[in-house]
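Kindly go through the entry underneath: sequence plus fold tokens. Please state briefly how this chain folds according to its tokens.
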Amino acid sequence: MDVPDPRELRLEQAMLPRDAFFGRAERVPWREAVGRVSAEMLTPYPPGIPAAVPGERLTEAVLDYLRTGVDAGMVVPDAADPEVRSVRVVAGE
């Protein structure tokens, strides 16, 4: 599993969480989610701390961390796709 430096896991808050979560959203392949605004919470277990919340702009480092984590046995139960092969993002963003 590839664990990036914690500084690489900090995301920019691009819009209010409520607007991102309840607004128009679409599911895209995880690689296409880089640079897009998350419309869902992505919380890997362990450790149980959100890697992304609605309204944050997703980075390659965070998405790679989630995908390699899932491949290593980590679970992301609150994601629309718990395998993180696709990610729910704000439509048109």
